[in-house]
Specification:
81% helix; 10 helices; mainly alpha
């Protein structure tokens, strides 16, 4: 476990490089948006799109480092939890019913968490679309004589980012506490193992597939499938639909899964002694016995 902790420290040491390759993509994306709003020549937008495509690839690599460090940190915290609740000697036997049940539930949690965050992004985007449509109805906005209410759109995004994260946060924070008190530390150990294995795989998949969807849209818009299949064609429309799934995957669900596996392990370590006071078994486990 000491070696794993040192490995986590090592993979986090080139932090400046990780932040640089993560920030490269959004900078190029924003540059393209500014170029389009400033009505610059189309070739400027094509260059920024090419840079943004490269940025998506570098961001996927940077997120891979973040995911790898989260996996090592969570594994080190899992070892600390097992030691805290005195399971290091007996180990965690997944053939036992409570441990195996915890393993299954833990493997499901990253999928539930990702679904909640994806749905939250969709709801916030829909609220933004409704607000923009309402502002289009204001006389003079489309003609450029009246300035739109930008603050209203920012307020919708800010409020949604706080409101919609309450449920996913409760899922991450309360699940290990409830499982620890109700089903015991052995079941919680299985839960943490399942969430770690499943969460790491899903985080890697989300980052890579999200970037691939985004780059596919840019590839089609640049004429990669032919000059007759650029923007405003069925092929490009299909790629845009895919990108509406890919963006929240790579920018919301994927990075948030790192927090899920680390925070669940930290909470389990903090409350570990409270769980262990229940004779290493939860309330329901004692009732069944």
């Amino acid at each position: 476990m000491f070696g794993i902790a040192c490995g986590a420290l090592g993979i986090l040491s080139p932090l400046s490089i990780d932040l640089t390759i993560d920030a490269y993509g959004p900078i190029c994306d924003n540059a393209g948006g500014i170029a389009e709003m400033a009505h610059l020549p189309p070739d400027v937008r094509e260059k920024t799109d090419a840079l943004d495509g490269a940025g998506n690839t570098t961001a996927a690599i940077g997120k891979g480092f973040a995911i790898g460090s989260a996996a090592l940190v969570s594994l080190a915290l899992f070892g600390a939890f097992v030691t805290t609740v005195d399971l290091a000697d007996v180990g965690v036997d997944i053939l036992q019913p409570f441990q195996f049940s915890g393993l299954l539930v833990g493997a499901m949690l990253p999928y539930w968490f990702s679904a909640m965050t994806m749905k939250s992004v969709g709801k916030a985007a829909l609220d933004m679309v409704v607000e923009v449509r309402n502002q289009f109805k204001i006389p003079g906005v489309l003609q450029g004589t009246v300035k739109p209410d930008y603050a209203r759109c920012v307020a919708i995004s800010t409020a949604a980012s706080l409101r919609e994260m309450i449920a996913p946060a409760c899922l991450v924070i309360l699940t290990p506490i409830l499982v620890g008190f109700l089903f015991g530390v052995r079941c919680l150990a299985g839960l943490l193992a399942g969430a770690l294995v499943s969460g790491v795989q899903m985080a890697i998949s989300s980052s890579n597939t999200g970037g691939a969807w985004d780059n596919a849209k840019k590839y089609i818009a640049a004429g990669g499938l032919g000059e007759d299949k650029r923007k405003h064609t069925p092929q490009h429309d299909a790629a845009v639909i895919g990108d509406t799934v890919g963006d929240p995957l790579k920018d919301t669900s994927g990075p948030a899964l790192n927090i899920l596996i680390k925070l669940m392990a930290i909470i389990s370590v903090v409350f570990g002694r409270s769980f262990a006071n229940k004779n290493t078994g939860g309330l329901l486990q004692q009732w069944f016995a």
